[in-house]
């Protein structure tokens, strides 16, 4: 059967996972995930690139932004850059880009149909009922086919979850990038922060030449250093950003790097964590090209950067700010926006899935919100907490609940909020982008 539309393609992507899910009694990636199936698919299709073409990026926060920045800088240096990220906000195509432009529906469906016989053969031979050929593995095959056909020079691949057992980690990678690691996906990646770090450092393999480590807590950094035996660059020792000032247009900062110093850089993204991501990306690019990078290249790369849903201001009357916040630590960064906006009447709309730190996000946001609304996106396959309102009222007695984001927006607009934060999972941000009719197919 030929897959005709993207709406038909999505269920096919998830079909193997859905067959296996009833057998997933334990949420443990070491038991349920089977990256060897993805490797088999890529070998069958002759899509495994040499390590010199692959940069793997993992972490708990900032890996998507860092991947995007690395791709932007390398593109400005003259490389043709493939970029594979997740999740998407509106369209699955957003996950696969070359020089910022998403793959078309036609190309996506062409490669999916071309790969279907191999996919069906592999899934038909799975013996362990817990195992599955994951949607990330199938998407990776489409991305690599697109990159191969378009002859990209280098590919930036964001790890989906964890590292060791992620489908993307079947690729040989010359470079490994690790952004901030926090407690996340507990169960899937283990029960302690050290288990999670072990998963993340799994992208550093025998063929990896260099690893670049972003900002970490002291205990995490110490543990990472104890696990690495190859050449590495570390935040705070080899590269250090300094935030100079911020306004609603973005952040101004300096970077002291291992090969050069870059002064008064401008990044049209908000939040001090984004300057940390930028420093990590610059260090990665210096490592890849083995030299300092002309400051105009860095500046032009960052000035034109678009990365939606990361403290993104989409309106100023009233102020409306979107952020993909799913844990307490990320929510704390939202407070940096308060001096930059009209804070007389702040409304926060929250939709965090039940398997994320929804209570942490609610607790932090309740401290600066006059109006607090918990809701769900218009479209999402995730499960949202049934006790969200109960939890919200622990911290904000007047908290309210609506069934859909659109209703929540209507509610806070009627309350004449001066600033509205819309925070939560990426599908929530995608719903907001759809409401404001914002296309994400070409982000430059």
From TrEMBL:
Family, similarity comment: Belongs to the folylpolyglutamate synthase family.
Span of domain Mur ligase central: 57-284
Keywords recorded for this protein, A-Z: ATP-binding, Ligase, Magnesium, Metal-binding, Nucleotide-binding
Keyword Cytoplasm included in the entry's annotation: no
Species annotation: Sutcliffiella rhizosphaerae
Top EC class, one word: ligase
Protein name in UniProt: UDP-N-acetylmuramoyl-L-alanyl-D-glutamate--2, 6-diaminopimelate ligase
Family matches, as NCBIfam families: folC
GO MF terms, alphabetically ordered: UDP-N-acetylmuramoyl-L-alanyl-D-glutamate-L-lysine ligase activity
Annotated EC: 6.3.2.7
Pfam families with a match to the protein in the record: Mur_ligase_M
């Amino acid at each position: 059967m030929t897959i005709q539309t993207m709406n038909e393609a999505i269920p096919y992507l998830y079909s193997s996972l859905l067959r296996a899910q009833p057998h997933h009694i334990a949420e443990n990636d070491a038991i349920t995930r089977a990256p060897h199936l993805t490797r088999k698919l890529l070998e069958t299709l002759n899509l495994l690139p040499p390590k010199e073409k692959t940069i793997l990026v993992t972490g708990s926060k900032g890996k998507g932004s860092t991947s995007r920045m690395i791709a932007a800088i390398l593109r400005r240096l003259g490389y043709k850059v493939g970029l594979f990220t997740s999740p998407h906000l509106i369209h699955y195509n957003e996950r696969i880009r070359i020089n910022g432009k998403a793959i078309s529906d036609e190309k996506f469906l062409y490669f999916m149909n071309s790969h279907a016989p191999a996919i069906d053969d592999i899934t038909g031979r799975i013996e362990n009922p817990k195992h599955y050929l994951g949607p990330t593995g199938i998407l990776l095959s489409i991305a690599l086919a697109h990159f191969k056909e378009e002859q990209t020079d280098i590919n930036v691949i964001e790890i989906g979850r964890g590292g060791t057992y992620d489908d993307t980690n079947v690729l040989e990678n010359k470079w490994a990038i690790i952004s901030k690691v926090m407690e996340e996906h507990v169960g899937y990646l283990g029960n302690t922060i050290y288990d999670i770090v072990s998963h993340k450092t799994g992208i550093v393999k025998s063929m990896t030449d260099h690893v670049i480590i972003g900002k970490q807590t002291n205990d995490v950094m110490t543990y990472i250093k104890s696990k690495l035996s190859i050449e590495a660059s570390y935040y705070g020792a080899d590269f250090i950003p300094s935030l100079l000032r911020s306004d609603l247009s973005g952040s101004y900062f300096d970077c002291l790097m291992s090969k050069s110093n870059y002064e008064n850089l401008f990044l049209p993204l908000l939040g001090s964590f984004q300057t940390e991501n930028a420093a990590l990306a610059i260090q990665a690019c210096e490592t890849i090209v083995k030299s300092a990078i002309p400051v105009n290249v860095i500046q032009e790369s960052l000035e034109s950067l678009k990365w939606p849903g990361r403290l993104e201001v989409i309106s100023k009357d009233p102020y409306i700010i979107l952020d993909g916040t799913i844990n307490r630590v990320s929510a704390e960064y939202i407070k940096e926006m308060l001096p930059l906006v009209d804070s007389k009447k702040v409304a926060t709309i929250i939709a965090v899935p039940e398997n994320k730190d929804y209570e942490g996000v609610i607790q932090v946001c309740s401290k600066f919100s006059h109006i607090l609304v918990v809701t769900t996106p218009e479209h999402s396959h995730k499960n949202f907490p049934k006790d969200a309102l109960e939890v919200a009222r622990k911290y904000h007695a007047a908290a309210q609940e609506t069934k859909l984001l659109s209703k929540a927006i209507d509610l806070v607009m009627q309350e004449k909020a001066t600033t509205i934060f819309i925070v939560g999972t990426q599908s929530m941000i995608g719903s907001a982008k759809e409401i404001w009719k914002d296309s994400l197919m070409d982000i430059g």
